[in-house]
Design goal:
By secondary structure, the protein is an alpha/beta fold. Helices cover 32% and strands 25% of the residues. It has 3 domains: 234 residues, Rossmann fold, CATH 3.40.50; 176 residues, Rossmann fold; 74 residues, no CATH class. The protein is built from 17 helices and 22 strands. Helix 4 crosses helix 5 and helix 14 runs parallel beside helix 15. The longest helix is centred in the middle third of the chain and has 16 residues.
Length: 516
């Protein structure tokens, strides 16, 4: 346990009544928070609690919708990342903010290069040596960033923040791709920075890490601040209890179809699947009409397993069988032809073309099915199908050629689901299907998932929200380090069961919380 550091310089940040909404959906409400100078302050909460959003508001990447912010005693009127950096506030992101074609050294010092008479002095490699010594990381300064592993890219992101010598550093999930030893070295660096007077706001899923290095901890739940207290007075159990709450109200999940083992072959069967993306010896099966969940930590390999099954990532070993037929040499296009589709977790970067309207987004992968003689699109048929999907998913506004970028997150997600469910696939892989959507959209998406199973579709459901998997799935697998770490029955398993199981995995770096 880190010794509690008493603030000698007062407060570095004060947030009063801070709120944030996206597309009319409140993500944060009424946040009152004081951050002491020279402390490590943990932010914890479940997925969707608002931790990362709050961190981005402090770092200048999001403007608060309501409330006021003071930085070192001065009110903030306008707040952007450059202005934040000028005032001594830097942020390192969970979503890496690196330029792929630049070297490690160039990325670390991008925007703060040494110059002589207006010309770059090319001193980045020399300066990087000092940053690496401080961080405990060891990377080739001349390595091209795009050729590094995700873990090494995350180290570059950490060093970018350290290189800016900020008085306040917001670290959003800095250890999610690091090994236990690398995470420990980063924690040592954080403690050294604290002793030098730097304030660190540490956003993390990993409660052991929070308790080991933080002076104080703030718990968020459903976009509101539950409490702030000394880390020395907390345990994993007390934090989990505060995160989950005892009076949460949830939209009810659809009633599950009762399933019995009838001896039929699974619709999807995976045996010994491994891939260089981090998937290791995964075997699972899904019957027709069954919803099977994957639950694990951030970075556990859930998405990588799905991508290897779908063919987005190349598998190195193992087999996939669909409806009794072995399916090798998988690609996304071939999977779609075989009736296997995957709804990705990032709708804006991987799912939708934000410059195209609703109709073009939904029919883009299926154009040949709407093409008549001479290669002419049968517009009437296309529009009829789009209208039926808009009505089914209750997309608002209900326009065939609606402007997707201006839709709410929930309606964008409905468009994405319509895109991949257009041709009634056999197997549907859903990666975070309700992330960032409002309550109404969430309920309709859950109903659609249950209806897929009722029609005989095999569904693989990935979600960081434990309740979502337990509420929808017939069976679920726990995922750790790219492998399956056990199977649970959602009918007899609670959220607390899953959290404690994942806290106490045998692996030395896995006693960490899935909540984010």
């Amino acid at each position: 346990m880190a010794a509690i550091r008493k603030p000698e310089d007062g407060l570095c940040l004060r947030l009063s009544g801070v709120g944030k909404s996206f597309g009319g959906v409140a993500v944060l409400s009424g946040i009152d928070l004081a951050i002491h100078a020279g402390e490590i302050h943990g932010l914890v909460g479940e997925n969707g609690a608002g931790k990362s959003t709050l961190g981005k508001i402090i770092g200048g990447y999001h403007a608060a919708s309501t409330g006021a912010i003071e930085v070192f005693g001065d009110p903030v009127k306008s707040w952007t990342p450059p202005l934040a950096l000028e005032r001594g506030v830097a942020m390192m992101h969970q979503e890496l903010q690196l330029v792929p074609g630049l070297t490690v050294a160039q990325n670390v010092f991008l925007g703060i290069e040494d110059k002589r008479l207006g010309v770059l002095a090319q001193t980045e490699n020399k300066r990087l040596a000092a940053v690496m010594a401080a961080s405990g990381f060891d990377l080739d300064p001349n390595a091209i960033t795009s050729e590094l592993s995700i873990a090494d890219q995350q180290k570059v992101e950490v060093m970018r923040a350290l290189a800016r010598e900020a008085r306040v550093i917001v670290m959003d999930e800095p250890t999610s791709s690091l090994t236990a030893d690398e995470a420990e070295r980063l924690h040592d660096t954080m403690l050294r920075l604290r002793e030098a007077g730097t304030t660190i706001i540490y956003v993390s899923h990993f409660l052991d890490d929070i308790l080991s290095v933080c002076d104080r901890v703030t718990v968020l739940r459903d976009g509101r601040l539950v409490r702030t207290g000394n880390a020395a007075d907390e345990t994993k159990g007390s934090i989990v209890s505060a995160m989950l709450g005892g009076d949460r109200t949830e939209t009810p999940y659809p009633q599950k179809t009762i399933r019995t083992a009838d001896g039929t072959l699974p619709l999807l069967k995976v045996d010994g699947l491994s891939a260089s993306s981090g998937v290791s010896n995964v075997s699972l099966h899904i019957a027709a009409g069954e919803i099977v969940g994957l639950m694990g930590l951030v970075g556990s390999g859930r998405t990588e397993i799905a991508r290897a099954i779908f063919g987005a990532d190349r598998a190195d070993a193992g087999s996939v069988t669909v409806d009794g037929s072995r399916y090798d040499d998988r690609t996304p296009a071939q999977s779609a032809e075989r009736g296997i589709v995957m709804v990705p977790e990032d709708r804006r970067k991987q799912g939708l073309v934000m410059t195209l309207p609703v109709r073009a987004n939904m029919t883009l992968p299926h154009l040949k099915y709407f093409t008549g003689a001479g290669g002419i699109i049968r517009t009437a048929l296309e529009k009829k199908r789009i209208r039926s999907l808009i009505d089914y998913f209750q997309v608002t506004p209900p326009r065939v050629d609606g402007d997707v970028p201006h839709y709410s997150g929930g309606n964008q997600q409905k468009v994405l689901l319509g895109k991949w469910l257009m041709r009634d696939p056999k197997v549907v892989i859903l990666d975070e299907p309700s992330r960032g959507v409002d309550v109404g959209a969430r309920q309709r998406i859950h109903e659609a998932i249950a209806e897929l199973a009722d029609k005989g579709t095999a569904v693989l459901l990935i979600s960081s929200e434990i309740e979502e998997v337990l509420g929808l799935a017939h069976r679920a697998y726990l995922v750790h380090d790219g492998s399956l770490a056990g199977e649970v029955d959602p009918e007899t398993t609670t959220t607390q069961d899953v959290l404690w199981t994942l806290f106490h995995q045998d692996q030395p770096d896995s006693a960490r919380s899935v909540a984010s």
